[in-house]
Specification:
It contains 5 helices and 18 strands. The protein has helices spanning 27-37, 83-96, 159-168, 221-233, 301-305; strands spanning 14-23, 41-45, 49-53, 63-66, 73-80, 99-103, 111-115, 121-125, 148-156, 173-179, 187-193, 201-205, 210-217, 240-246, 253-258, 264-269, 282-285, 308-309. Strands 9, 10, 11, 12, 13, 14, 15, 16, 17 and 18 form a 10-stranded mixed sheet that branches. The longest helix is centred in the first third of the chain and has 14 residues, at 83-96.
Length: 330
């Protein structure tokens, strides 16, 4: 089992994945998809940027859409426990030569900007502007009634080394993983968390680093089905890429969508907690088709090949050459 032990004392304390910034071409079209279609809440807007959150959120944003580099993922943001953790994060990335600077963007306090050792752009912050949460504003529930950001999934070309960094340095804990059945197994994918559910960050073998998808948490299966109905009558029927279905990994009920700029969005519900210290990571064989699809149609080729690039980062071919289970076409 090629899993690394999570750092007992991480170099700084990450609480959870907190927001994602995506490059889009048209803010109004994006608002039609995310607000009118998926039911997210608009926290703010200017000429170039749209700030969104889920109905459960009391922080200013979990998704930022910027009118620049359409189709690119601009950054993945993590929240840390204390201001001192920001100091430790800054020192950590400066020592590695990966610190990009600091900022204080709209709705957010001091933010450390960096790249991980593989080129993925990251941001770290401790606080956001508090806003009224809409959890019990049931008159605002429509579309998928998105509650919050749950996770991100990224393609990793150097999957073993990427896993080793996030677990061994930053203290992410593995919930489930996929590996080959060789005498010396090799990792194909890892689901890792800080907040005590299945994942904050999933790493999937592939041409990378690139963003595979943003996972948005909804209350239940009927919210996913309702989103399909709403998207179908609002001009976004073609956005459905895969599902609905249920994963073996995570037990999640899912639907994968492509937003107007091609970013992949997962509507996600039905996973489980991983809080207890005796929780043992669940192993899946790469050859087991139930891991990606417990029931439902297998994933199309696009689900394995396409993703959102990171600006200025040249994706690399994966070190592990392995063929996934792909939906058959006539």
């Amino acid at each position: 089992m090629p899993l690394s032990e999570p750092a007992a004392v991480p170099v700084f304390d990450v609480l959870r994945v907190a927001h994602v910034e995506l490059g889009v071409s048209q803010l109004e079209r994006s608002a039609e998809f995310y607000v009118a279609g998926l039911g997210m809440v608009e926290s703010g807007r200017d000429e170039h940027t749209l700030w969104l959150r889920g109905l459960e959120d009391s922080s200013h944003h979990c998704l930022v859409l910027r009118r620049q580099e359409p189709g690119a993922c601009l950054s993945i943001g993590f929240r840390v426990r204390t201001p001192a953790d920001l100091d430790r994060a800054s020192a950590h990335f400066a020592a590695r030569g990966d610190l990009l600077g600091e900022s204080e963007p709209r709705g957010q306090g001091r933010t450390v900007l960096a790249r991980d050792p593989f080129g993925m752009p990251l941001s770290f912050y401790h606080e956001q502007l508090r806003v009224p949460r809409q959890l019990q504003s049931y008159d605002r529930y429509h579309g998928a009634a998105v509650q919050r950001l749950d996770h991100v999934n990224v393609y990793a070309a150097e999957l073993q080394a990427t896993h080793d960094y996030y677990t061994g340095e930053l203290g992410f804990r593995v919930s489930e993983y996929t590996e080959t059945d060789e005498d010396e197994p090799r990792l194909w994918a890892v689901w890792a968390h800080r907040k005590g559910n299945v994942h904050d960050l999933a790493l999937t073998n592939g041409v990378g680093p690139r963003l595979h998808h943003v996972g948005l948490w909804v209350r239940g299966e009927m919210d996913v089905i309702n989103a399909c109905d709403v998207l179908a009558v609002s001009g976004f029927a073609g956005a459905i890429e895969r599902g609905p279905g249920r994963h073996g990994i995570s037990n999640a009920f899912f639907l994968y969508l492509r937003d107007p700029d091609g970013h992949r969005i997962e509507l996600f519900t039905g996973d489980y907690r991983t809080l207890d210290p005796e929780f043992t990571p669940i192993r899946w064989s790469l050859d087991d088709p139930r891991r990606q699809t417990l029931w439902g149609q297998p994933a199309p080729r696009s689900w394995f090949d396409e993703g959102s690039p990171f600006p200025g980062v040249q994706p690399r071919q994966p070190q592990l050459d392995a063929e996934p289970v792909v939906a058959k076409t006539n």
